[in-house]
């Protein structure tokens, strides 16, 4: 687990915490590691959480399947990002979605009760981690608000324009790569894949954009 300390230092949860302090806090926060193959469930809808997790390898999707097998991708968790903050309070209830590995992934779980209470060793950086957790929750909420902005659009084209515009601004360039394949993008935007693919072709023919698989260029 200690091999991931340099990566943990770059996460928002441990921002500003020294390497040696992170090493000590792995024990203090009851850190546990889990490895998951592509397609395996990390967490399932209906589970109750007492830990938050940081992904240190791979990629996870937060998703939900309805009774008929229709899938919606709620969000994506990349290396260095956290999950579980919204479900660890006593009144949060059970998980509303599944968390699945879309690539071979490694996750470190931290006991939230130990994060929120100062340990007997009185780690110098413990209060900083609590502050960072608050900031991480705030950023996660902002990300969900951005997705709601895409979802509030009425048509498939408007949803695509909203999402692709945000990705261009995030990358700082008109040319960028998105983290989804076609089916995943359709699931993320809650649109029909065929209708979305047709709309992308129309937008290309109209000179609005160019694309090759998950690489896009806005014109």
Could you walk me through the main structural features you see in this protein, from its secondary elements to its overall organization?
The protein has 219 residues and is an alpha+beta fold. The chain has two domains: 146 residues, Jelly Rolls (Sandwich), CATH 2.60.120; 66 residues, Winged helix-like DNA-binding domain superfamily/Winged helix DNA-binding domain (Arc Repressor Mutant, subunit A, Orthogonal Bundle), CATH 1.10.10. It is built from seven helices and eleven strands. A hairpin with a 2-residue loop joins strand 10 and strand 11. The model has no long low-confidence stretch (mean pLDDT 88).
The Rg value, from CA coordinates, equals: 19 Å
Quote the beta fraction: 15-25%
Overall shape = elongated
Question: What is the number of domains?
Answer: 2
Low-confidence stretches: none
The CATH top-level class label of the largest domain: Mainly Beta
Largest sheet properties: 4 strands, antiparallel
Alpha-beta classification: alpha+beta
Name the helicity range. 25-40%
Q: What brief labels describe this structure?
A:
219 residues; alpha+beta; Arc Repressor Mutant, subunit A; 4-stranded antiparallel beta sheet; 7 helices
């Amino acid at each position: 687990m200690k091999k991931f300390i340099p990566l943990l230092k770059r996460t928002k949860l441990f921002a500003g915490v020294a390497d040696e302090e992170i090493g000590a806090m792995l024990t203090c926060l009851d850190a546990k590691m889990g490895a998951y193959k592509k397609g395996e469930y990390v967490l399932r809808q209906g589970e109750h959480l007492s830990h938050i997790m940081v992904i240190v390898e791979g990629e996870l999707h937060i998703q939900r399947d309805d009774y008929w097998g229709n899938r919606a991708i709620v969000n994506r968790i990349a290396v260095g990002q956290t999950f579980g903050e919204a479900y660890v309070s006593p009144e949060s209830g059970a998980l509303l979605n599944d968390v699945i590995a879309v690539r071979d992934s490694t996750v470190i779980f931290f006991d939230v009760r130990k994060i929120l209470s100062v340990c007997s060793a009185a780690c110098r950086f413990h209060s900083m981690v609590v502050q960072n957790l608050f900031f991480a929750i705030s950023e996660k909420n902002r990300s969900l608000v951005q997705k709601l902005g895409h979802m509030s659009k009425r048509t498939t084209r408007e949803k695509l324009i909203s999402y692709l515009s945000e990705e261009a601004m995030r990358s700082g360039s008109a040319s960028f790569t998105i983290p989804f394949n076609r089916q995943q993008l359709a699931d993320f935007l809650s649109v029909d894949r065929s209708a979305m693919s047709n709309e992308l072709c129309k937008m290309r023919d109209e000179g609005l954009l160019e694309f090759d698989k998950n690489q896009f260029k806005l014109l």
